[in-house]
From TrEMBL:
It is found in: Mitochondrion. This is Pseudouridylate synthase RPUSD4, mitochondrial. It comes from the Eukaryota. Gene3D superfamilies: Pseudouridine synthase. One of its GO terms (molecular function) is pseudouridine synthase activity. Pfam families: PseudoU_synth_2 (PF00849). The keyword Ligase does not apply. The keyword tRNA processing applies. Keywords: Isomerase, Mitochondrion, rRNA processing, Transit peptide, tRNA processing.
């Protein structure tokens, strides 16, 4: 005999001949009725089944792609997700293995891909969280936490400077602020910048973008625009920041390039915005700034996809190919000579260079015989 129908929202009572696992919809709200209290066993079995199904979905393994490039893309995505779930001690140990330089004032690390520097919405683990643990690993349990001297974007890899003392961190931050630190980034771009070397000097402003969710993006705020073939001066935005980037193409093919970038200023997402909007050559894997109007994955030329061995549907998994290649710190504290710090490319970056036919340049030209060079092995 069928159970009586109830009008409780989110509740559906079926015939007793059907499986008890179909009594409720997954989004049902808590309720209390005589129908549930009279069948505690079914409710318990239902809860156990839902828990087992949820656990099965979490532990279900993704099919392994046969294409080796797609397999590496999947491994990188999984690795960046794992970085957010590991224990802080594990992450600190991993950072200690990638130390480029260490002295009594500074510790320079090789920042991994996909690891945020600061906490925020949705961030489970970041570099600043593990600085106390990292300091204890390097100097013992009584060591004071290390201090951040600057920051890199979550998807950016490469050289990152930490300081033992807060005063030293402030001194290094002042060097960055007053543009006394020479920074070099390497990026793989979609299309080739023209001319092959130059300076992008266009202010940048943060604007609100309408879409599925309201969010903000950095974009250009040029001082002039074309109006009926004439150049017209635009009223400057109060919120615009001066942004200057020097660039040089190191290697190129008809559809892509390896570009060296030297930011003169340090505005948020400056390199990505100047390349995407200023030079019309977005960074490979830059899904945020490759297209202003859509939230779709970066549209890549057919030739580039073929060289990478990917389909367009997999383009959203391509990591951002932006690497903090080199820093030159001037003499500071007890150090009487400048310190040149260079960091090798991550594996995925070097492999993309090979697949795209881009040549590794003869880099690391020394800025002086007294400059001390340190490189990650």
């Amino acid at each position: 005999m069928a159970a009586p129908r109830l009008s409780t929202p989110g509740l559906r009572v079926l015939s007793s001949k059907l499986r008890p696992g179909r009594l409720f919809t997954p989004g049902s709200k808590p309720f209390c009725s005589s129908a549930t209290t009279s069948r505690p066993l079914n409710a318990q079995r239902l809860a156990e089944k839902l828990r087992a199904r949820k656990k099965e979905q979490k532990t279900k393994k993704m099919p392994v792609p046969t294409n080796p490039v797609q397999r590496r893309v999947q491994e990188l995505v999984r690795f960046t997700q794992q970085l957010q779930r590991v224990h802080p001690n594990v992450l600190a140990k991993e950072l200690s293995r990638g130390i480029l330089h260490q002295d009594k004032d500074l510790v320079v690390i090789n920042k991994p891909y996909g690891l945020p520097v600061h906490g925020g919405p949705g961030v489970q683990l970041c570099i600043s969280d593990v600085l106390p643990t990292l300091a204890k690993m390097l100097r013992g349990h009584k060591a004071e936490p290390l201090h951040l001297c600057h920051r890199l974007d979550k998807e950016t890899t490469g050289v990152m400077v930490l300081a033992w003392e807060k005063d030293m961190a402030h001194q290094v931050q002042e060097l960055f602020r007053t543009r006394q630190v020479e920074k070099k980034y390497w990026a793989i771009t979609v299309r080739v910048p023209l001319p092959s070397a130059g300076v992008v000097d266009i202010p940048i402003v943060e604007k609100e973008v309408q879409g599925q969710q309201q969010h903000h993006k950095m974009t250009l705020s040029p001082s002039y625009r074309m109006d009926n073939g004439k150049m017209v001066k635009v009223r400057a935005s109060r919120n615009a920041h001066v942004a200057v980037t020097q660039y040089q193409v190191l290697s190129s093919t008809p559809s892509s390039a390896l570009v060296e970038l030297q930011p003169v200023t340090g505005i948020k997402h400056q390199l990505r915005v100047h390349l995407s909007f200023g030079l019309d050559c977005p960074i490979l894997g830059d899904h945020k700034y490759s297209d202003w109007n859509r939230l779709a994955p970066q549209k890549l030329p057919a030739g580039t996809l073929k060289k990478l061995g990917l389909h367009q549907t997999k383009a959203r998994y391509i990591p951002l190919h932006l690497h903090a290649r080199q820093l030159i710190l001037p003499a500071l504290g007890s150090r009487t000579e400048e310190l040149l710090l260079a960091c090798k490319l991550p594996h995925f970056f070097a492999h993309s260079l090979h697949r795209l036919g881009l040549e590794m340049p003869n880099q690391d030209q020394s800025k002086g015989s007294e400059a001390r060079r340190v490189e990650a092995q």
